[in-house]
């Protein structure tokens, strides 16, 4: 919440309190803190020196990032698919058409053509990096598919029980940026496939929390910041901001269509979420922090006639008003500075 909005909220609170709390005095007093009378407040609280941190609460949703489709590359009959909820890693099966297995390899470029001796390009390098990672070496990892690359492919095919052709096409492997989690099958085993037809829907294997934060509140957060996540069972877990969006978009709530930024948060311990998926959570972001400042409870503030603020200081059995300047509002307290205000000073507050 913006500083101006917080102060306005405090003024509103004090205006309401003024009608029911005897010690909220609105008559004038001088800035030096001259005693106005000896009337004591119903209760007191001590001025404290502490670190004060502003925090923002926002709703979020646990889910999986990086949703994508794996499409068939040939016509045939779907004979097998990886199970929903399973994780497929490098060299693992994704699906099979007419008994021919399509395996996962890691890389950013798609598998779009036949790779064979004499082929050159970034997709060749991706394949060779995967072969080397799986222990099939004897070639130079570069952009050229050589006879040595073909020999390594044959060894890989033999180990997998496949026909040893020394060539690979889209019907053999598919590239993804890393391991994938199978979300669902788009068609069933036994169905006919066609080139370009979606076979599987997959996501990244790690859970992430998606948060839509007001633009004005997102200005105080950044990638790497620590957060606290309240899970549906009421427990809390530490996390960290992994991405902060750069484009503001209107909110989907009809009652709040203010521009919002999308943030991604990951938990420090993924096992804290159990089997949760698309479950609501609350994320607490820590914003501005002031170290070693003097603070009082917000309800200790007095609204002065000139629209300033003061405190009712209690000393030696008497009460007097002291004008103060306000700083950060957070955690039910407010930063204050002023003559006669020091750690341990007793100030008036409403009776609990």
Question: What is the makeup of the main sheet?
Answer: 6 strands, antiparallel, barrel
Query: Uncertain spans, ≥5 residues at pLDDT below 50?
Result: 1-9, 11-37
Radius of gyration from the alpha-carbon trace, in angstroms = 32 Å
Placed side by side, the strands forming the largest sheet appear as 2-12-16-14-13-17
Question: How many beta-strand elements?
Answer: 22
Q: Bin the strand percentage.
A: 35-45%
- Count of helical regions: 4
Shape: elongated
Kindly report the average pLDDT value. Answer: 86
State the distance separating the first and last CA atoms.
26 Å
SS-based structural class? Answer: mainly beta
Instruction: Specify the helix fraction band.
Output: 10-25%
Order of helices and strands: HEEEEEEEHHEEEEEHEEEEEEEEEE
The gist of it:
13% of the residues lie in helices and 41% in strands. By secondary structure, it is mainly beta.
Set down the secondary structure blueprint.
Layout: H1 3-18, E1 43-46, E2 48-64, E3 68-71, E4 76-81, E5 87-88, E6 93-97, E7 100-106, H2 122-133, H3 147-159, E8 173-176, E9 180-185, E10 192-193, E11 198-203, E12 207-214, H4 215-218, E13 226-230, E14 236-244, E15 249-250, E16 259-267, E17 279-297, E18 302-303, E19 309-315, E20 318-330, E21 333-337, E22 346-349
Parallel strand pairs: 7-8
Antiparallel strand pairs: 1-22, 2-12, 2-17, 3-11, 4-6, 4-10, 5-9, 6-7, 9-11, 12-16, 13-14, 13-17, 14-16, 15-16, 17-21, 18-19, 19-20, 19-22, 20-21
């Amino acid at each position: 919440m913006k500083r101006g909005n917080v102060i306005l909220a405090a003024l509103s609170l004090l205006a309401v309190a003024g009608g029911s709390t005897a010690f909220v005095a609105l008559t004038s007093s001088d800035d030096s803190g001259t005693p106005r009378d000896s009337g004591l407040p119903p209760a007191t609280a001590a001025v404290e020196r502490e670190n004060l941190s502003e925090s923002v609460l926002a709703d979020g949703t646990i889910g999986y990032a990086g949703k994508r489709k794996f499409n068939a590359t040939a016509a045939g009959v779907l004979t097998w698919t990886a199970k929903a909820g399973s994780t497929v890693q490098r060299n693992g099966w994704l699906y099979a058409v007419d008994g021919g297995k399509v395996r996962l390899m890691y890389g950013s470029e798609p598998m779009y053509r036949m790779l064979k001796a004499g082929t050159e390009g970034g997709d060749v390098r991706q394949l060779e990096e995967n072969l080397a990672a799986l222990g099939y070496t004897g070639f130079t990892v570069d952009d050229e598919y050589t006879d040595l690359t073909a020999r390594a492919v044959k060894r890989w095919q033999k180990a997998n029980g496949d026909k040893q052709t020394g060539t690979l096409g889209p019907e053999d492997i598919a590239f993804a940026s890393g391991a994938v989690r199978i979300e669902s099958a788009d068609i069933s085993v036994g169905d006919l496939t066609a080139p370009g037809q979606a076979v599987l829907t997959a996501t990244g294997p790690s859970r992430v929390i998606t948060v839509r934060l007001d633009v004005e509140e997102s200005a105080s957060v950044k990638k790497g910041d620590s957060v606290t996540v309240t899970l549906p069972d009421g427990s809390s877990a530490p996390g960290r901001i992994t991405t902060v969006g750069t484009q503001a978009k209107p909110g989907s709530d009809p009652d709040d269509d203010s521009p919002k930024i999308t943030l991604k948060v990951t938990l420090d311990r993924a096992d804290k979420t159990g089997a949760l998926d698309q479950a609501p959570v609350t994320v607490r972001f820590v914003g501005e922090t002031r170290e070693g400042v003097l603070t009082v409870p917000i309800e200790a503030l007095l609204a002065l006639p000139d629209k300033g603020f003061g405190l009712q200081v209690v000393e030696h059995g008497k009460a007097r008003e002291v004008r103060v300047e306000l700083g950060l509002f957070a955690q039910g307290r407010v930063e204050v500075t002023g003559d006669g205000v020091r750690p341990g000073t007793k100030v008036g507050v409403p009776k609990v």
